[in-house]
Write a structure and sequence with these properties.
The chain has helices at 112-121, 125-138, 145-170, 173-179, 183-188, 194-197, 217-225, 232-247, and strands spanning 2-6, 9-13, 18-21, 40-44, 51-53, 62-65, 71-79, 85-90, 96-100, 104-105, 203-206, 211-214. The two termini are 14 Å apart. The model is unreliable at 1-26 (pLDDT under 50). The chain is 37% helix and 23% strand. A hairpin with a 5-residue loop joins strand 8 and strand 9. The protein has 248 residues and is an alpha+beta fold. The chain folds into two domains: 2-22 and 110-247, no CATH class; 32-105, SH3 Domains (SH3 type barrels), CATH 2.30.30.40. The chain has a five-stranded antiparallel beta sheet. Strands 3-11-12 form a three-stranded antiparallel beta sheet. The protein has a two-stranded antiparallel sheet with strand order 1-2. It has eight helices and twelve strands.
Length: 248
């Protein structure tokens, strides 16, 4: 039996029929391409707007589209006559162009953490997880971090419900037993887990109920680093509820 202490309270987690999948909060930016050095760093957070253009205009020729999480270096700014603002950016040593300001966040600039929190609050499902991961990587000292950790965990637990449903639909037990491998290995290799692992999310898997659960790492971080925050009470409640799920 392994016990996790939560502000003086201990919850036993029985792992006889549970296994853990995915690395615990590996930094997502480790897998992202870094932008050129020597200028102000920015990261794409809204890929819908991340069209790198030859000129600061929404109708200028497209150089390329940048994916979410792509790092760039800001080298200038300009606002068009119709009120749209652009950053001049370097993507690589040879690739430069103009990006709409709202497509990126620049951690060194004031209030960018607030803007990204507003964006991820309006996001859903995996988009919210991916944008929250960028926030956690890029704004390690933001006072808004506890709120983002709470959202990140809640969305991860919601994802666990969807993953359980999808795995149950695609992995039929008679077919799996015919394959000869341990039953749990098919679930732990379920391909829909891959993109969550890249966001640093870990799940536990209950072999009895064939259910995934979020491991609660972001909620534990709230209690460890921000025990006096307004989010701490909810984090404690969520961990207590999680302990019930994985021990019943």
């Amino acid at each position: 039996m392994i016990k996790h202490n939560l502000n003086g309270r201990s919850y036993g987690l029985l792992f006889g029929s549970f296994v853990c999948v995915c690395l615990l909060h590996a930094p997502a930016h480790a897998n992202r391409r870094r932008g050129p050095t020597g200028a102000q760093r920015a990261v794409v957070v809204d890929e819908r707007l991340a069209a790198l253009r030859a000129e600061p205009s929404l109708t200028a020729p497209l150089v390329e589209r940048l994916g979410r999480g792509r790092a760039v270096a800001i080298t200038g700014t300009r606002q068009t006559s119709d009120g749209v603002s652009f950053y001049r950016v370097a993507v690589t040593r040879r690739t430069r162009g103009w990006l709409q300001v709202e497509s990126v966040v620049a951690p060194a600039r004031a209030h960018e953490d607030e803007r990204l929190l507003h964006l991820l609050q309006g996001s859903e499902d995996f988009d919210r997880i991916a944008r929250a991961r960028i926030f956690l990587d890029e704004f390690p000292r933001s006072p808004l971090r506890p709120a983002v950790l709470l959202l990140f965990g809640a969305e991860a637990e919601a994802a666990a419900v969807r993953l359980s449903r999808d795995a149950g639909r695609h992995l039929k037990e008679p077919e799996l037993r015919a394959g000869g491998a341990p039953l749990r290995s098919y679930f732990l290799n379920f391909n829909e887990l891959d993109r969550y692992r890249r966001q640093g999310i870990a799940f536990t898997f209950d072999e009895t109920t064939k259910q995934f659960h979020y491991d609660g790492a972001s909620w534990r971080e709230i209690l460890r680093r921000y025990p006096q925050s307004t989010e701490a009470a909810e984090a404690r409640q969520r961990l207590a509820a999680l302990a019930v799920k994985v021990t019943r």
